[in-house]
Structure formats: C-alpha cells, structure tokens
Write a structure and sequence with these properties.
TIM Barrel; eight-stranded parallel β-barrel; two-stranded antiparallel sheet; binds iron/sulfur cluster
Length: 397
Amino acid sequence: MLYKDFQDLKLSALGFGTMRLPLGADGEIDQAQLDAMVDRAMAAGVNYFDTAYPYHNGKSELAIARSLARYPRESWYLADKFPGHQNVRGVTPMQPAEIFEEQLAKCGVDYFDFYLLHNINEHSLYYYGNPDNHYLEYFLEQKGKGRIKHLGFSTHAGPECLKGLLEKIGKHMEFCQIQLNYVDWKLQGAEEKCVLLADYGIPVWVMEPVRGGRLAHFDEATEAKMRALRPDESIPAWAFRWLQTVTRSTMVLSGMSNMAQMEDNIRTFSAEKPLDEKELALLGEIREMLARSIPCTGCRYCCAGCPMELNIPEMLAMANEMAIGSSITTIARYTALGEGKRADACIGCGQCVQVCPQNIEVPTELEKLAEIMAKQKSWEQICAERAAAAAALKAKG
Ligand code: SF4
Ligand code: SF4
C-alpha cells in the first residue's frame, strides 16, 4: 500500500468511501460483505474510512462503525461530515451539537479523526456562512476539546466560490475534499481549485475519482484502445493512474461496492505507475467524449426532496444512453418506471437543482428526455411488433 504524509500521520493513499456500500437482496447494506471488505482493506494496509450523515439514509455510519469496532481504535482513522448542505430554506437550520453527538453515538467513538463540513457550495454557503448558525465556531470548539482531531471541508463549489470561502475560513481548514478526476479537471474547474488550495497550503482529498463509476466502463472501441496500451490494467485503474500522474493529492477516496473493486483498487495502490504522453492523450479524447453527456454521478442527493418522488439519476442515465442512440432496453426501463414517475411528471420545482453537487439543470434535462421518449415507439408497441414478427416467422415454417 502506498502511504502519504499528513502532518504527523501516515495515511494510506487509498481511502475506503462508504457512500455506495454492498447491498443485500433486501436492498439494505450487506454487513457480512462489508465486514469482509473491511478485513481485506485492513490486511492490505488501508487505514482511512470515510462516511457521512446522509450516506445510505444514515445507515452508512452505523455499518462502517460496526465493521471497524472489531479492530483497535488506534488502527484506523474515521472521517465523518456535518450535513449543513441538507438544510432546507424556511426550516429551522440544523443544530450542530445535536447532529455531532448523534454521529459520535452512531459510530461508537468519542472522537473523529477527521471531520468535514459537508458539501459547501454556492447554495449551502447560505447556511455555513451565516454567523447565527455558529457552525464553524462549534466545530472549532470540538476540535479544541479533542473530539475532532482534524477539521476540513468537502466542496463542489466552483473556483470563484471556493476562493471566497478560503478567504473566510481557509486558515481553519486542514484538508479539503473535492471531486477530482480526469474529466472534472477541466469540466468542474478542479485544476483551478487545486491551485487555490495549494496557495493556502491545504492538502487535497479526492472524491469521485471514477465519477460514480462513469469512468469504469466505456464502449468496446475505447476500452480496446486502453487495453492495447496497458493490457494488465483495469479500466477504472486508469482514473487512479491519472491522479498519480497529474495531481499531488494526499488521499483518494473510492466508494467500493464489492470485493472485486476492492481487490482492483488494492492492486492499483500497491505501486505508482504514471501514465505516459500517449496514454494521457487517450484520456483527453475520452474527456472530450464525456463532456458532452450529463455529468450525474448517481449520488442521489436530489432524490429525498423530490415532491414527485422521481428516480432522477436513473432518468439522467437514460438520457445519456438515448443521446448515444435509441435503445430498446432504455425504453423498457423507462416504461417500467410507471405512470407519474417518468420525466414528464417533473413539476419543475427546482429542489433538485439546489442540492445537486454537479449543478445539473435537472428539470431541463428531464423535459428533453420526456420529448425524446415521446417520439419513440412505446414499449407495448415494440412488444406487439416483435410478437407479430415472431408469429409471421412461425407461420412461414
Ligand atoms: S424539479 Fe422535477 S425532478 Fe427536480 S425535485 Fe422538482 S419535481 Fe423532482
Ligand atoms: S442529479 Fe445531481 S444530485 Fe441527483 S444524483 Fe445526479 S449528481 Fe446527484
């Protein structure tokens, strides 16, 4: 395992992100599988585990804490986050003490090694920056008491907002977690953000290194080009190699959902294998290709507050699929969403836009999807035509 220095600590360069934990057939976190993955991670030298209040609707904290409790407290570092970004306008803002005590209790710890103000962005700044909420003040106080060892923040803010933020709170922040991968280097201004953070001497923690899995699979032709250059490397590993080559990040968090992903990541983080010019150029081509699609990472932050209870990330994925070309399987999945749950049910309230870390104009994208789908043959029509064709074939003998 590769390690990085952070103050007086040696952190594994790979951190275990717990936003997309393994699920059982009942849709709940598969604790046994998670325990096995944590065992494998610990055996390989991973010592950093990252959770957050909203992950898995509050169950991620409990699940990872259960797994880690089987190991001595000093053998792992746990990061958790204050969900200030989930405040809703018009409702009394969250009380930091209430949430923080709840998190400590859920995780069964009396201190967090790392604690972050979660997702400070152009919208949530309204709450984080409001002096009446005393958010920063409260967490600095907890740090003073030793209940937080290192205080930082995560952000999806654009470079301008980040700049203003650093001017205000930069001196208190020990690390910053940003979305960083070879697509967002340009698309989300990650390069500029890294420069800003470096000016403040704040180390970078990487989240979404494979963009919610979007950089883990490509079309056959693209994957063939990648394999020709690096036959022994998996497709997701390219994203980590890019980070090793171009950035000077301290921590790379990977949300692993199964043992195969864990094994692949452990292999990748056993040695640095930087990319050469030709390989970087290929990732540049892929970046161009992906920049034309909707950049949804499937985080589901938008889902809880949707008054129509729409499966927004699923429909945005369908929009991306349809942009490449009409697909029967996409139409089938879209149909299966059911009446009142498809794109045309969106009432344009904008709640999703407020909370989306990728700044996606969801109502506009759903409107476009509804238009595209309205022009397709319905799934029933496709089935009827197929049945008629099969019958005709049978009649012919
Ligand atoms: S704008 Fe549409 S998709 Fe977004 S929260 Fe409102 S109803 Fe749901
Ligand atoms: S639309 Fe935005 S908030 Fe919703 S799942 Fe996609 S990236 Fe996350």
